[in-house]
Structures are given as structure tokens and as C-alpha cells.
Amino acid sequence: MKNLIHWLLLISLFLNCYQVLSQNTQTIELRPGPNEGIDCEIRTDMDWPIWYEDDFIANAWTVQGAPFVERSLLKFDLSSLPEGAVIVGAKLSLFCNTITGHHQIHSGDNASYLLRITQPWDQYSATWNTQPAVTYEDAVEIPASIAQIQDYPNIDVTNLIKYFYDNPDQNFGFMFQLKEEELYAAMVFSSSDHIDSTKRPLLSIEYTTCDLADASYTFSFTGNQNELQFTANEPTNTYFWWDFGNGFYSDLANPVYTFPDTGIYNVCLTVANECDTTTYCELINVTCPPLVADFIHEISGYYVQFNPSDTVDNYQYLWDFGDGFFSYLRDPLHYYNELGCYQVCLTVSSDCDNLMHCDSINLISEKIANSYPENIKIYPNPSNGIFQVIQGNETVQLKSIRIINHTGTIVLNNSDYRISQGINTYYCDLSGLESGLYTIQVITNIGVTTQKALVTGR
Predict the structure, then answer these.
(1) 335 pairs with which residues across the strands?
(2) CATH superfamily, region 295-363
(3) In terms of Cα–Cα distance, which of 183, 229, 216, 201 is closest to 62?
């Protein structure tokens, strides 16, 4: 289905391009003379070059009763066409040589071909025995004449000229020959050596110019697993078609794509503007991006907020706070029971690798409620999970509460329905938690106090 969409896209592009080109064509006419023209004749009965005649001829005749066949070669220099031109049409006009040295002009069953030459040749050395090879691909048929001195204006040679322009190293010109090289047939036109400049071969090319489409692109890993950001270098192209090399596609200019597996993919971008379509491919090694385990922290009394320097959604984070507590949260808030210096380590893991980074933090505080443990009381302790946190001094005001398990994870706080606040008291229901030792942190108007509470279960 996606391939069908691709081809429909290209068909639409062709129709749009045709409409644009038909409105903005330019024309160039090439009519070289004796000094610039590249043409010659070759005959079966002459083993020498014939580049000086004024005939452009296809012939099968006799001389003093001896039969011969004659062909002609013609090449146009297309270098005057601007780079990036798009050929809309090309017409070749040939004019009968009414002053030819041959006693016949157009004669017999003279339907002819213009064939594409596929090998290099030189007008000053070409002979029948050294003539270049030709192909019948895109052959142009010239119908038999209906008058002896008939001109043939506007012969459609568009496909041949397009090929020569798109493949300049293959521009070897045309071979002119009879379709059936049987005796007493001839078609005689004027060559570039004709004395009358209006009789020489005339090539008229219609074309349009525009900037060639640029299909090159850049890419970068986003940091998420196997996810890459692709960016087209020429964002003004009208159409984009990305082939990620695994059967998946995109028509966005700058797609983000996640490869399901690591490996090497041949990623191709096809772009098109109003007159050009081109494709660029590059082999991309999809590997896991490098890990970053650096972190930052902010100290507030006994509390420290930790944050990784680089975060990725599907990575795993393990914090070792250096005091026997751990956390798998990405951005944990940790409470330290004592002031001092701690070695904190963060381990970041992906599907491909893991990386650890350690740093030391130093807790110094001047105002900690733990200096006044009598200000807050926890009752009963131990218990089956139902606790009261009671204000023990009228100068202390309760602000908030957190319940932390043995891994350093906050399992309850005062926004949870299992914690309610009364007058100078918090009512905490920990009965739904596992049995064990929990840290209760109470934030007050004078600082933070921390006490241990043991949940014994039912």
C-alpha cells in the first residue's frame, strides 16, 4: 500500500511539473556552420572520410553499375544549454539539398531512421569500416517523401536530446540511414557545410530551468533508544519520501523514526521540486546512543533533591545515596538522618549498556528541627500501621509530612487520603504497607524532624 502511495505521489508530481514547465519554457536554436558543424558521410565504396560535402544523406544507389550504401552522421554540441535545464521538447528540421552533387534527390522507398550513436567517432576519420555502433532505442522514423524536394521541419527528437543532455559523456549524435537499404532509394538533406545557412540542420530545444532538487540529509540520535532525527538539507523541496531501509517510510520533511532493532540500514531520501526528482542514500549504523550519568543536586537542610543531567524515558536510574538508602526514581528527593559528607552514585542503564557516576555532597545546616526532637511525637510506635504525629510544643507548626520506605522512596505524603490532619496532629494509616521500618519526615516552621516508625502488621 505504501509503495502504491509512493507511485501515486510521483505521478502527481509529474502532472504538476508538466503544468509548470508548459508555462515557463525557453527556446534555444542550434544551427552550426562549416566551422562548428560535426557531420560526415560514410559509403560502402569509399574507404576514406567524407566530411566536406554539403549533403546529409541516406542513400542506396549505383555508380557505373556498382551498388553502394551511404549513411550520414550528425552531432550537436549541447553545452550551451544551462546546467539544470529540463528538456520540454526538441525538434530537428532538415532541408532538402536542391543543389546536391548527386543526380538524384528524394527517390524511391526512402523512409529513414535517425538512430542514437553509442560510440565516439570523428568526422575527419570516420569511414564505413570504422563507423560507430548504434541503438534502435528511441529511434526516430522519418516517413517516405511525397515530393522530390521535400523539407522535413520539426522532427520530434525529444527523447534523444534528453538522453544526450542527461548523459553528456554519451552524446555521440545521430546516424541517418534508410530503413530498408535497397537500391534506388535516397533522402538527401543539406549538411552544416551547405553554402546557404538557411538550409543547414536546425535543432530547436525548449527547456525550463530551476534549482536541482537536493536529496542530501543529516541525522542525529535523539537520546531515546534507537530513535533518530532526520533532517533534509533542502527543506523547500515540494515532495519528500523517506525509505528507512526496513519497509517503513515517511513523507515528512524532517521525520523522527525509531528503528525496532540495531543494525545497518540503507536510508534513502527522494525529493522533488517543480522540475527535478532525485534520490540520495546513506548506510546508517543504528547503535545505542552514549549514556550520561552526571547529575545535579540541591540541598535544603537534611533534604537533597537529585536530578540526572540527561533524562531518557526508557532508561533505568539507580541512586545510591551513600547512607544505606537507594532509589529507582529518576528525580528523587532524599532525606539524610545526619549531617556530613556522602558519596552519591547514579547508575544509568539502557538495553545496551549501563554507566555509573559518583559525586560527593556535603550537608551543612544551621536550622534543623531535629535539634528539638521533643517538639514532635509519634504515637504509638511500634504499631500495626495506625500512627499519630503530634505537635509537642506550641511554638512548632506542622507544615507537611512524608513517609519513606527503606529504599528512600516516598510512599505517602500529606496529599494522600490515608493521611489526614487534625488540630496539631497528623493521622497516618500505614496498615496497607508492608511491615518494616519507615522514616517519618515532618516539615515544620522551624525545620525538618525525622523519626523512625516500625509497622508490625496486624
Answers:
(1) 303
(2) Immunoglobulins (2.60.40.10)
(3) 183
